[in-house]
Amino acid sequence: MPFWFEKEDARRFRRLDISIKAVVRPQESLKETPIFAYGIDYFPSSVQKRIKKSKKALRHWVSHIQDQQDILEPFFSDFERYIDFFGDWTHKLAHGQSPRMNRNDWLAFHGYAKGVQRIQSINQSAPKTFQYFDALNHKMILHFQHLSGCFESSNATSFKAPPPLPSNFVIDQKAKRFEPDTFQNVPLAQALYHLNALMAHYFNAYQNLVDDMTLSRTPQNWPKLELNLSECGAAIFVPKRFSADKRYKILFYFDSFNRALEMPSVLVRSIYDQNRNLECNAFDFVFPNSHYQRLIQLEIDRYEITQSKKVYR
């Protein structure tokens, strides 16, 4: 039997693709973990596909570097290994684990947090190339430091993160110069571009985790999510996957009503949405408040009217 969000016209409630401010939270955190966590998967199929694509492109272009390939290739391998390590501990943090529980893990973490050291060998011989690697290193080190701060400040009952990371880094501006349509025949430029893109997949996943765990109490500041919404449930498209063995609460904020609604929910399905390259997490509302259902329907009506006016302008 199709789920409600797959029934198209054969459905009881009207549904609508809409972008609204919303938050999805498990009703309970994980039990008996050293760090407060919800167990959300921030590296689901959609993110793994992006990572795999970037790694393939990175390795392709590294293999085509002609000048000093024997020197530069180990740099790229190191960065890939370091960022994989960062991703592993991001995943573990999301599940309440900490390297501080094991001395060897904590020492290894601090070793990686120093960044890729061997790039210093080209500081004098190839200063311009060094600048790019150094900018990548700087971005990675700051993320390691931020992750370390989460481990050091959080405990089993609360999650605390350091002040927010910068929204833009020097390497992000530099990498824009190397976009494929402008430097498509320069292997080193393309390798640096795809390495930065690879790092971004991991750092975006980490930022999603931090955002979820340090959510603003002001609904007006909640993030806008892409939803397929009806009175009976919502399919939410995000680069993360929720577990089926938990109860959830979905909080919506409608600007038109200036009101937040909390809907107890159960996850009925999580699938990879190929068209959006995101995870589709579909929830049914559990014993929904009829007044809240009515407000959702009014919001759907309002949105449809607004969109129809745009068409006829």
Structural description of this entry:
This protein is of the alpha+beta class and 313 residues long. It folds into two domains: 15-29 and 219-312, Thrombin, subunit H (Beta Barrel); 45-214. Helices cover 44% and strands 18% of the residues. It is built from seven helices and six strands, in the order βααααααβββββα. A six-stranded antiparallel β-barrel has the order 1-2-3-6-5-4. α2 runs parallel beside α4, α2 packs parallel to α6 and α5 (170-176) crosses α6 (187-213). The longest helix has 27 residues, at 127-153. The relative contact order is 0.19. The model has no long low-confidence stretch (mean pLDDT 91).
Radius of gyration: 22 Å
**From the structure provided, what is the oligomeric state, counting identical versus distinct chains?**
single chain
Largest sheet: 6 strands, antiparallel, barrel
Please give the count of helices: 7
Instruction: Give the SSE string.
Output: EHHHHHHEEEEEH
Summing up helix and strand content along with how strands pair, one would put the structural category as alpha+beta
Give the overall silhouette: globular
**Low-confidence blocks of residues:** none
**What is the count of distinct domains?**
2
